[in-house]
Amino acid sequence: MNIGDVATRTGLPAKTIRYYEDINLIKPLRDDNGYRRFREKDVHKLNFLGRARALGFTIEDCRTLLALYEDETRASADVKQVARDHLTQIEAKIADLNAMRDTLSHLVDACAGDDRPDCPILQDLGGKS
Amino acid sequence: MNIGDVATRTGLPAKTIRYYEDINLIKPLRDDNGYRRFREKDVHKLNFLGRARALGFTIEDCRTLLALYEDETRASADVKQVARDHLTQIEAKIADLNAMRDTLSHLVDACAGDDRPDCPILQDLGGKS
DNA sequence: GTGGGGGTTCCAGTGACAGGAAGGTCAAGA
DNA sequence: TCTTGACCTTCCTGTCACTGGAACCCCCAC
Asked: Is B67 within the bounds of a domain?
């Protein structure tokens, strides 16, 4: 399979797939013409990576998870730890964003949004007073 | 005022302040020795920028907002539009993160987290079957 | 004069790719 | 046989908003 087919099958851009090879997440073979040749195993890994990335895991997390995935003797506790740490980070981000949203939506509601210059949003950013 | 005092007063790292000058958000004066000399006006702008960034506005948004802030003839509708667009993006991000959190917390809960290799998290990432 | 705590510039790195240039390869059609 | 066009290759640059660090200058107190 060439990279285009793999891109179609995995939903990942070819650029991303090349990048993943670059950083040693996958190691496709090469044909005589220099084209990458992907095995089912590679496609499987890429799907794994795509799903992990979709859950927001960093590339380094993905590397760890992939290693655990391929290690038959792993302890599920190790996997769970990675996932839980990530979950904690996501929750922190959500909390941050919720705070921003609350502040911002108050300000947006308070703003008349007409042609006059008076604006509570700018007042707030400028330090109210 | 030198950059260190400004950093203390605004809570922004000196590096960030230099960067903001670099990209023309502020234009402090210069002393004969080459040191930046900040006026109250500059500090005020930096505080504005700090608050806007804390609300998650991009630098380009900040540039726009700052221009509106300094334009006495602005229409509050223009400010509101910028804020509302940003709010929409924040809400989209929150939705994404909530989806990740839900999936992830289900998986974390389902994982025994012991020394055995069986792990629903990896099963899910690997495509379950 | 020396030490330390300011300040300056410039360059590289971050994360996870995306865009684009310049060129090689391959199968199909005229 | 030639050409077209789709595909592939590598390599370099840019993204965003900084951060870290090197190498150097400036100023004041001791």
From this structure: no
